[in-house]
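The methods section describes the discrete structure representation at length, but only in general terms. The central task, working out the structure tokens from the amino acid sequence alone, is never made concrete. Nothing conveys this as quickly as seeing an actual entry. For illustration, here is how one protein appears when written out as sequence plus structure tokens:
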Amino acid sequence: MKTVEAEKLLPIGKIAGVHGIKGDVKILPFEGMQWLDSATFFLMDSSGKLTESIAIKRIRRQKGIFIATLEGCASREDALALTGRLVCVRKKDLPALPEGEYYLSELEGMDVWTDDDRHLGRVINVFPTGSNDVIEVKGRSGTILIPAIEGVVKEVSLAAGKMTVHLMEGLIEAGEKA
């Protein structure tokens, strides 16, 4: 396996299962990752440990997922052994985004502040819900779920590692301190 630091990788999808009997895998891309054009992926297990790098022999899109033929994965059993692993790419291999846009995974670990200067905690997860993404923040008050919508997320500074939000009524229970 090639040596790569996990913090320099970005999860872009998950091996969701097998396709056929020749070792092809189904890759379910994460929200906003509707492309896969890297020649090499890195696989990560559920604990966040890098397990291997793997070359792509062939990849095609099919109904919202990708079907990939991977180097060294020649049977259904080989493909089954990879099911559930995260598919990662080097951050430097990602296409550049327009000014003011960012990859959702870049938000993880970011400090979250309200627009009236209260520290809520750190982003521990971002997940899609269908209508919008939700930012999960863990802090002194416990876990807060913040909708990633205009009017709530006011500013994101990747360089500073800081997000500013406007709390809508009901996001934090009355009497709770952020």
Remarks:
- The chain has one helix and twelve strands.
- The two ends are 44 Å apart (CA to CA).
- The chain has two domains: 6-93, 104-165.
